[in-house]
Amino acid sequence: MGVNDKESVEKQYQNSNNLNARISIHDKYSTNKQGFGNWIFDHYEIQDGMSVLELGCGTGSMWTGKDALVKKCSRLILSDFSDGMLAQTKETLREMEGIEYRVIDIQDIPYEDNTFDIVIANMMLYHVPDLQKGLQEVRRVLKADGTFYCATFGENGIMEYIYSLFEAYGVKTSMNYAFTLQNGTEKLSKVFADVQRDDYKDSLEVTDVEDMVDYVYSLTNMSALQDLPRTKILDVLESNMVNGILRVPKDYGMFIVKGSRL
Question: Domain map of the chain by residue range?
Fold first, then answer.
């Protein structure tokens, strides 16, 4: 990721507006009612006295209502690359105690070796300019018997489906596949010896395509599609509805990585 890509990421995540638009569509239309965030948390094996670092915490909303889990941690640090996003996290979790907040770049984690029992980096590794360096930093600060959790998207999900609907208009995908379900095992295995993948089964059933257009406009990597008139995007999406529903595939999951080193 070059300077322009970095600026794009900073623009996309400088505040919570774009992220909230993306979260909203999942909350309203997902067919799996467990929720991706709840599913992710069900994987966390946080025991009493553990030290936990989350990188790229976003709005922090996933920690809402998780007071019992927070209390288990001897130390819980929620961090993000963006000052604006971290400010939103603090506001979201202002009623919760026992949480530290830090602006941290995964490529230069400011903690000593073997510090954390658990490191979390959900839906963000594909933005890291030097992913290998970032993963090595995670391994460095993770205890030898610790666990690294990292959720991501796959290559057969929402945006691939949306792009496919607009091929006739010359719109081509500009998706960032730097770290996906399909290639994540290979990338993680260059740094860690024990990598497991688990997929989340879900889809969207959208009844108001205006929400889907808002989703499109929340994504800087969909600029090619955003060049079309909003009315045209609406028309195409509506034409693909069946019985008042636009059915959209989702492709999400996570990797559970043990701290054993190569």
Answer: 3-155+176-203+251-258
Alpha carbon distance 160, 173 (integer Å)? 7
Torsion sign across C-alpha atoms 210, 215, 218, 221:
negative
- The answer as to CATH 3.40.50.150 being correct for domain 3-155+176-203+251-258 is yes
| Alpha-carbon gap, residue 226 to 220, rounded angstroms | 9
The model scores a pTM over 0.70: yes
pLDDT in tens, 98-137: 999 999 999 999 999 999 999 999 999 999 999 999 999 9
Say if residues 204 and 25 touch (Cβ distance below 8 Å): yes
- DSSP letter at 123? S
> CA dist 28 to 12, 17, 21, 23, Å?
22, 17, 11, 9
